[in-house]
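// run 5 | inverse folding | seed 20
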């Protein structure tokens, strides 16, 4: 029997489902009889509870289950016959009128949209690249040295310098009044390493142990502390302790401590370069992928199913709530989170997902087994025991699904870059790494 599909607006559709009342009653009776074999009730032996008692206790819930099952089956069959791609869960309501012996329901739902992909050859995409040069390797080696540095107290007649670890007491006031977070005792930070505002850092340089200094400090307008952002404070700082850093020499012992058995500078630099090149590759790919996805969304025309946006919004809200839990926020489950703040992000995700899905389907860009294996092996190379990492991924379907999604995105990126107008741009290493 042909299914009559009524178009309400854009993606919204409605179909009528009919169920035979006798079929519902028969299934309810069968389930109650099955339930009666095991149900327990005071005054009756197991399996000997009268059907009237079973029906009284469980009739409503069993009826509800049967109706849900039968309606689900009927809807799935009707949608399949009408060749509909249903987006989200249908809203099913019973109709007042129905043929004798029948129950009728309206199922209102949305369908997936037609995605019209624009001419990719007319799309302009910026493709970045970056190289690992000697300066990048030098900088990384310096970072490795700083990670293993030691500190020793400076002589009392020497002032604080860049790289020193200082211990200070400080108190800040705005218009003569203390403010929250503006006072500390025994506070430590590294001079010249961006841990403090530049004005604060500069004021401490040159101070000696026991010395005190008062200086003004202008908080930036975008400072994370909203109560003091854009305001000027006066700080009193007293130097309690100064420790000079000692960086280890780049010798055989230092290099072997990093896990490089050869113990030579050449081996160290080669290992650093290999790791940096791997990181650069992933960062370049991520940046180019983002540029491709933005271009795809702009080039496509489609309507968005409200059901998918709602579901994605719920996922984002749940993710935010989980983040609150991880931060130790009390009663995170009850914390009100306005769903509307996630609506733009949810809409963008749904749009992108539909566009990418259509591009993958139309151009056979699914992830191939050899691509999945190659991607996992490449990721595993940055770990101490790559083989174990590979096994860890291959043993879990969820993790493999995440890898598959990444590989598909990479395939889409390569495909679009092969079709679009590509503008190549070489990025300095530091700019790429700090972006």
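// decoded
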């Amino acid at each position: 029997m042909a299914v009559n599909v009524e178009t309400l607006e854009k993606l919204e559709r409605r179909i009528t489902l009919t169920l035979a009342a006798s079929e519902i009653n028969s299934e309810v009776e069968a389930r109650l009889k099955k339930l009666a074999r095991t149900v327990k009730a005071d005054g009756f032996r197991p399996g000997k509870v009268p059907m009237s008692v079973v029906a009284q206790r469980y009739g409503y819930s069993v009826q509800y289950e049967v109706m849900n099952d039968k309606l689900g089956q009927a809807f799935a069959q009707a949608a399949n016959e009408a060749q509909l791609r249903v987006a989200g869960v249908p809203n099913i309501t019973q109709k007042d009128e129905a043929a004798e012996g029948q129950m009728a329901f309206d199922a209102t739902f949305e369908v997936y949209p037609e995605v019209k992909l624009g001419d990719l050859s007319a799309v302009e995409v910026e493709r970045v690249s970056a190289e690992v040069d000697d300066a990048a390797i030098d900088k990384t080696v310096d970072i490795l040295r700083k990670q293993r540095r030691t500190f020793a107290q400076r002589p009392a007649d020497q002032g604080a310098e860049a790289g020193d670890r200082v211990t200070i007491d400080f108190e800040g006031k705005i218009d003569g009044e203390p403010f929250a977070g503006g006072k500390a005792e025994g506070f430590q930070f590294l001079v010249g390493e961006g841990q403090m505002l530049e004005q604060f850092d500069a004021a401490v340089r040159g101070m000696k142990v026991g010395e005190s200094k008062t200086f003004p400090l202008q908080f930036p307008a975008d400072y994370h502390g909203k109560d003091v952002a854009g305001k000027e404070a006066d700080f009193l700082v007293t130097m309690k302790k100064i420790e000079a850093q000692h960086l280890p020499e780049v010798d055989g012992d230092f290099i072997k401590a990093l896990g490089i058995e050869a113990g030579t500078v050449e081996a160290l630099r080669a290992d650093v370069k290999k790791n940096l090149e791997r990181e650069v590759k992933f960062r370049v790919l991520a940046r180019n992928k983002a540029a491709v996805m933005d271009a795809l969304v702009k080039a496509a025309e489609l309507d968005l199913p409200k059901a998918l946006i709602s579901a994605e919004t719920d996922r984002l809200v749940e993710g935010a709530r989980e983040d609150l839990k991880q931060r130790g926020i009390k009663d995170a489950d009850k914390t009100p989170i306005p769903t509307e703040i996630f609506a733009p992000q949810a809409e963008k995700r749904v749009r992108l997902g539909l566009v990418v899905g259509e591009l993958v389907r139309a151009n056979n860009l699914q992830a191939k087994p050899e691509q999945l294996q190659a991607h996992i092996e490449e990721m595993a190379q940055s770990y101490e025991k790559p083989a174990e990492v590979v096994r860890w991924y291959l043993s879990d379907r969820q993790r493999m699904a995440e890898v598959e999604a990444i590989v598909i995105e990479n395939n889409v990126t390569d495909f679009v870059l092969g079709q679009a107008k590509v503008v190549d741009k070489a990025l300095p290493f530091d700019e790429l790494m700090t972006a």
